[in-house]
Amino acid sequence: MASNSLKRRGLMFVLSSPSGAGKTTIAHRLLEDDLEIAMSISVTTRPIRPGETDGLDYRFTDRAGFEAMIEAGEFLEWAEVFGHLYGTPKAQIRAGLKEGQDFLFDIDWQGTQQLYQRMETDVVRVFLLPPSIEALEARLRSRGTDSEEVIRDRMARSRAEISHWDGYDYVVVNDDMDACFEQVHGILRAERLRRARQTGLVDFTRDLMR
Ligand code: 5GP
Question: How many angstroms from the chain centroid is the CA of residue 47?
């Protein structure tokens, strides 16, 4: 449901966390419960995983294809993560924001920094933290899809990711999935009401004062 009837510009809602802190669950719930936000679908060179769909989870491509997109200036941001390239294509996002469409971004801190540098006023940065490092490791292991070596890499990467907590506008500790979801959704709803995003306010208030 729209928060009000005024025309507004969409926002870029960045949800980052070390992997295993519940980001994917929270992201899915947001997309299910809130009709005004859609996933920003990244392009990646990483191999497709079981259960993933091309064009839905990512657009999967090879390195040459990705590099051609960099050359053509088609990315809002891109980064290399675990030896694979990941990037946010520009065109769809720009058009959507103008129409009041919000986008959810599941990107790492490097991508978040680049997005913020380029689109500062449109970007809302939210970081999720796990309640403990043990809980994080347990969640990583419970997926059961990755080898011991990959898990070790991901734990090292998670610690590095946590060190970027101060580059975000909001930080939520995820020790209860429902509470965390409510907090994240609350941030989104409040951010939509920022004066600068409500492009319909000029006409609306002019009418009120007439
Ligand atoms: P995964 O391969 O597990 O889906 O994602 C690995 C990492 O890449 C995650 O930390 C995720 O946030 C990050 N990532 C996914 N898409 C993008 C993107 O478009 N840009 C950037 N910078 N990072 C991304």
Answer: 20
